[in-house]
Amino acid sequence: MSQEKVAVVTGSNKGIGFAIVEGLCKRFDGVIYLTSRDEDKGKAAAAKLKKRDSDNPHFHQLDVSDKESVIRFRDFIKQKHGGIDILINNAGVVAPLNNNYENCKTVIDINYGGILNAQEYLFPLLRDNARVLNISSNCGHLSNLRNMDWIKRLSKKDLSKTDIDDFVNWFLESVKKGTFKRSDFADGGTIPSYRVSKVALSALTMVQQKELEPRGISVNSIHPGLVSTDMTMHIGFLTPDEAAETPVDLVLDAPPSLKGKYIWYNGEIVDWFDYKSDRYFKVTSVGKQFLKDVLRLPAEMFFSPAMWVGVLTMILIIVITKIFE
Ligand SMILES: NC(=O)c1ccc[n+]([C@@H]2O[C@H](COP(=O)([O-])OP(=O)(O)OC[C@H]3O[C@@H](n4cnc5c(N)ncnc54)[C@H](OP(=O)(O)O)[C@@H]3O)[C@@H](O)[C@H]2O)c1
After folding, report:
1. Which family does it belong to (predicted)?
2. Right CATH for 6-281 from 3.30.1330.60, 3.40.640.10, 3.40.50.720, 1.10.8.60
């Protein structure tokens, strides 16, 4: 069994996860696992980063919402390395426009269920003083909620996993029964399943911190900014490389006292409980960023048909989202 330090990044075949692996390859002295649910995509991504003089990054299949896959990965790491020093739970999906039950359940199963699977199967491998970073969103700040009962319950000092599970199930049941109320959420209740999954993830981060505290392990969550990736149709004020900087700094350089916090993309520690603050996600911020991106394009691109297909798609998405508010 190797004695080297081990870092694992979930959902890292592309986007922010891939950029985090690239950042770790430059700075982390140990074995780095680029993992992805699709074996071919993951191997291709790892091959792009692999240098002749280094084995990093290594690849292993890992679908965070598939318990069998997580168990296979757990067994592999246990046998080969015995433990994990850095775990970045990055894998995630955004909600499709149609908020039907199946779509909402898929988002919750990956974004929140994936973190629960990591907690159940990978946390037992965490070495003392390990670092865990859960990739949240501005959709994960408590100010995304307008329902005072849930704001109060999720703000409890003795918050438990049961409270968070109940919150997630309350939402899914409301979608199933047709009793879902947009007024329970900020921004007219846009992308509610994504908001619920990320609020749950950030709340769970604090519960996980309490559990791992005695072993000196830190667990934090971060909003990575609006980042130009497939998830945002490449609209964003940060590139994946820029967005990866704070997560990499946090797992390598943050003081050990930074624990159970919700962190903004610029490294600012944000009060997650401040439900009256303006931290919540607004659909219009994506539209505004899109216009900024378009206005910065060179003239030849500005007049290309592909650009205008993009503009019309974006306008259509904003209009449809507003109609369904
Ligand atoms: N981009 C933003 O502006 C933004 C803002 C706030 C938060 N975030 C969060 O940042 C994280 C990374 O997002 P991104 O922008 O880099 O998106 P992305 O480019 O779409 O990448 C998402 C990654 O997650 C993987 N994934 C999805 N479901 C998975 C599963 N069940 N098991 C394992 N991997 C899975 C995807 O794999 P496939 O290639 O197989 O789909 C992909 O590698 C997500 O948690 C997202 O919610 C992003």
Report:
1. Belongs to the short-chain dehydrogenases/reductases (SDR) family.
2. 3.40.50.720
